[in-house]
Amino acid sequence: MPTVKQLQAELAAAKAEINRLQQQNASLLKRLSQSPSTTVPKRVPIATVPRPPASPSSLQLKPPTKRPPPPELESAPLQKASKPKYAPPLPSQTAAARTFSPPSTNQGFKYLYLPIQRRLPIRQIRSLLRRLHINSNRVLDIHYPDRHLVALLLHNDYEAEVRSQLEKFEIPIHDDYDPMNPNNLRNPYYDDFNQGEKECAAWSVFTQRVILAIRRLKGPVQRAVARFFVDKGIIASVVLNELFPVKPT
Fold first, then answer.
1. Helix axes 195-216, 220-231, angle to 10 degrees
2. Rounded Cα distance, 126 and 120, in Å
3. What is the pLDDT at residue 110?
4. Which fold has domain 107-177?
5. In terms of pTM, does the model score above 0.90?
């Protein structure tokens, strides 16, 4: 075990070594301060270090590698393009084609009377006719002449086609209905009329319906329908002059 003298001797030697090192460090600092050409190198940030230029070989694009197609594409057989199905002509095209057809030998118009559960808006009736593949544009007039009955005004050339479509859906046509029959007057106002007065009233009611239908039409078909009912004696020629007044020249 070291004695106190030995510890004191070692402590004195350590102090002497520290003094020597301090003197050596002070001498070095003094030399550095006296020499201006000597600079302490600074630490260069990593971000400012320039990268070496890329070689020409590294700038060349590598050709894309061809990957095999997925298995579901390999197994799927090639399908042939399907031919477009025949599209029926539009109503406007059919109307344009009729312009270049010869005049019909079946000139005239006719009302078809169909049963109906309840009165519906005319626009809805036309929508239902289109569902039955009936061209509603060729239905010139729609009105309700009696209870649970609807009337469709058609050109004679279109009557057969409409009848065929109605038969497909088992819709009956009331061919025996006569709008000018006084027995079809439902308004109690006519109950006290005699037979002759009722006949005149039935004729007047039907005439007013026809005139309203003509007023709603436009174009050449308006004059054609009016002329037809004048020739049939349903409306008077005076009404025709009122509908189509002659313009003074």
1. 160
2. 10
3. 97
4. Alpha-Beta Plaits (3.30.70)
5. no
